[in-house]
Every structure is written in structure tokens, then in C-alpha cells.
Design brief:
- Strand 19 and strand 20 form a beta hairpin.
- Helices cover 26% and strands 29% of the residues.
- It has twelve helices and 20 strands.
- An eight-stranded mixed β-sheet has the order 1-2-4-3-5-6-7-8, sandwiched between helices. A seven-stranded antiparallel β-sheet has the order 11-10-14-17-18-13-12.
- One of its GO terms (molecular function) is riboflavin reductase (NADPH) activity.
- It comes from Hyphomonas adhaerens MHS-3.
- This is Flavin reductase-like, FMN-binding protein.
């Protein structure tokens, strides 16, 4: 066991422990309100023995973590704490969280935080749970309070209800919801209503346990958790071998983060055409060359191959709708997209992060793609914007630590 400290929202120090090898898939354990990380003792041990790297932390104002000087225990502070912790981790963990911790995890991951975790396990974390029951001292190991009394005095559970429900509908990653059948926090009906918000969720009920299921029946909870992890977030990395499933190779290539571009030109009738491409790279500075790869199945391929001039428009973070538009076939892509003719006549998308005007230099066969190499004759860029990124099949944005 190694002590760890994370910097939470507004610099609040969040203390915890790490178990196992950092090279193993990570699991982050978040306790409920008025609890501490000690509730995970047996679960952490089971996860490490199963080959997982485990980190558990105390939430702000709980256990050994800092009691914030500004007294902030509003829901937003807990959500931002978790986002900060996830951003400081070396890999995307599966988040396992109970009651209030589950609320914070749902909001953090559902509100544009999908890139921060590989999966989510919630324990009795319905939005309309009995928060007072969750924080009763008799529910704590040994019945001893280990938290700042200001937490229960100032935290407003009503502020979290709608936000958690809305965020749940945005979560696409694998989710497991676990409930103790004897729990006083909520009933099965409330749990089923909440599960309807998720797209990719499983449900498990442990009959012999109440709301402290991870501590009361750690054996059954750990077995349920490990079964979910091995099926949905397996320990061993997928492997591609020549001749096997091409999707696995595509997923492996998706581990290389790229920017997103729209390649444009004029067809023989002088009409603008374009398509989204993330296979783009610089080739040479002398002469100034770049390349893009265009699928042979693309409807605009013939026009791209015939054109003497074309442009590559690098998109910024606010142009995700433009990327989606130019990725769809049969769309009138330019009618609602501001653009202008460049020096060589090729369409330049207005407001792009960068525009490269090119003269066709060479065409090469590239399997199921054509490699189009262009000589850059003019380029301009916007230094104050951030790029739209693409990683593992999803749009991303830069995170500055």
C-alpha cells in the first residue's frame, strides 16, 4: 500500500492509498457521504488479487482529506474534485462509487467526462435516495463520525437530483448498478427508474446486504464486481493478428490521437465538395508537402483525384458539428457552412484552426484508401483556438494539467 495525494477542486488535498501494480488496469474507489475509504478494505484486497491496480481516496471533509477552509460542500465541489482526480491519473480507471460518491461520478462522467474513465459501477446511487439515511452515524464502521460536521449541515441533496438524472443519459460506457436488497436508501422501483436513463447498464441486487453492501457482504459484492470487470473491461489487452478481425486493428490504430480535418476542392462543374478525414500528416518541409488518405468508397474520391488544387481545413473544438456534417453522405454540406474561395480556388472553411491550400503533388494506391499528397502553396492558422481531437472513436479536447 502506498499513500497518494491528489489536488482537488480549488486546491483541496484529497488523501488516499494505492494498491497493486500501476501497470495493471486501474480501479478508483469512492466512498459515500459520511464514510471514509476504510469501507473498501476487503474489496480493494480482492481487486488486487485479481490483477487490478486500486486507488481509494477520502472525499473532501472526510477521513484524512482536507477540510476546505472555505467550507464548500456543495455538490459542484464534489463533482470537480472527482474530475480533478481522474485528470491526474495515469490511465482511465473504472470508477466504483457509493451513494454521494456515485452522484458525483455520474455527473463528472456524464457531463463531457466520458474520456476520463473506462467504466462506472454505482452502489445505491439513485438521485432520489434518502440522503439522511446514507449519512447516519450508525451506518459507519464502528459508528464513529469521521467527517467535518459542516458537511451534513450545508450539503443540499436537492441540488444534485436533476443534474444526476440528466448526466446519466449521456453516459455511454459500461455501467453496473449494485443495490443491497435491504437498503434503506431507496427501493427497487427507484433503482429501475434510474437505470432507464443509462444506455449501457447492468443491474445486480445482493439480497443479504443493505446500503453498506461493499462492507457488509464484501465477498458477494467483489464477486459481482469482478465478473463485470472481466466481461466489460477485461484485464488483458485485445490483440490483432494478420487475418483476424479488422475491427481490432482499427481500435488499435485509434489509440493514436489525431486532429480532425475537412478536405475540400471544386468538382468539374466548379461546385464545392468536401469530406471529413483524420488521416492527415505533414510529409516534408523542403518541398512543403502534406498528405491525406481518402477512402476508395468515398463519393467524392473521383473529384479529389481529378482536381489540380485542394485544401485541408483543420477543425477547432467548436467545429464538431462541421466534422459530423462532412462525414455524412448525401448531405448539402456547404449550404449552411461559411466558406470562401482560397488563392487556388479551393473552398476554405471560415474560422478553421488552420487552412492549407495545396497543389496536387502525387497520388498513390494505399489499399482501401488513396494517398493524396499535396504541395502547400499557402497556409494560415488561428493561434488562439484549441484543436478538435479524435481518439478511440470519439471526439476529445485538450486537457491542460
Amino acid at each position: 500500500m502506498q499513500p497518494v495525494i491528489f489536488k482537488g477542486f480549488a486546491g483541496t488535498a484529497l488523501k488516499g492509498d494505492a494498491f497493486g501494480s500501476p501497470d495493471d488496469p486501474a480501479v478508483l474507489l469512492i466512498h459515500g457521504g459520511a464514510q471514509t475509504r476504510a469501507v473498501w478494505d476487503d474489496v480493494a484486497d480482492a481487486l488486487v488479487r485479481a490483477g487490478r491496480y486500486v486507488i481509494r481516496i477520502d472525499m473532501r471533509g472526510h477521513g484524512e482529506s482536507e477540510w476546505p477552509a472555505d467550507g464548500r460542500y456543495d455538490f459542484e465541489s464534489f463533482v470537480e474534485d472527482l474530475r480533478a482526480v481522474l485528470a491526474q491519473m495515469a490511465s482511465r480507471p473504472v470508477v466504483v462509487a457509493a451513494s454521494l460518491g456515485g452522484w458525483a461520478a455520474t455527473a463528472a462522467l456524464g457531463e463531457e467526462g466520458a474520456h476520463l474513465a473506462a467504466g462506472l459501477v454505482l452502489i445505491d446511487s439513485v438521485p432520489d435516495m434518502d440522503f439522511d439515511a446514507a449519512c447516519r452515524q450508525e451506518n459507519l464502521p464502528g459508528g464513529k463520525p469521521c467527517f467535518d460536521p459542516a458537511f451534513t449541515d450545508t450539503f443540499d441533496p436537492e441540488a444534485a437530483v436533476d443534474r444526476v438524472s440528466s448526466a446519466a443519459g449521456q453516459i455511454k460506457m459500461p455501467v453496473l448498478f449494485v443495490r443491497g436488497a435491504k437498503s434503506e436508501l431507496s427501493g427497487a422501483d427507484e433503482a429501475n427508474r434510474f437505470l432507464g436513463h443509462f444506455e449501457n447498464v447492468e443491474y445486480a441486487e445482493i439480497r443479504e446486504a443493505g446500503q453498506m453492501v461493499a462492507a457488509e457482504r464484501a465477498d458477494m459484492f467483489s464477486a459481482t464486481l469482478l465478473d463485470f470487470l472481466e466481461r466489460r473491461v477485461p484485464r488483458f489487452a485485445p490483440e490483432y493478428r494478420q487475418g483476424s478481425d479488422a475491427r481490432t486493428l482499427r481500435d488499435a490504430l485509434g489509440c493514436f490521437a489525431t486532429g480532425v480535418t475537412v478536405v475540400t476542392t471544386l468538382d468539374q462543374e466548379g461546385q464545392p465538395i468536401g469530406l471529413t478525414a483524420n488521416s492527415f500528416t505533414s510529409v516534408s518541409l523542403e518541398p512543403p508537402l502534406l498528405l491525406v488518405c481518402i477512402a476508395k468508397s468515398a463519393g467524392s474520391l473521383a473529384a479529389m483525384e481529378a482536381a489540380e488544387n485542394f485544401a485541408v481545413n483543420v477543425l477547432h473544438i467548436g467545429q464538431q458539428p462541421t466534422s459530423n456534417l462532412f462525414a455524412k453522405s448525401g448531405e448539402d454540406r456547404f449550404s449552411g457552412t461559411p466558406w470562401s474561395r482560397g488563392h487556388n480556388g479551393a473552398p476554405l472553411l471560415s474560422g478553421a484552426l488552420a487552412n492549407f491550400e495545396c497543389r496536387r503533388f502525387a497520388l498513390h494506391d494505399g489499399g482501401d484508401h488513396v494517398i493524396l499528397i499535396g504541395e502547400v502553396v499557402r497556409a494560415r492558422f488561428e493561434p488562439r483556438r484549441d484543436p478538435l481531437l479524435y481518439f478511440r472513436g470519439k471526439y476529445r479536447r485538450l486537457h491542460f494539467a
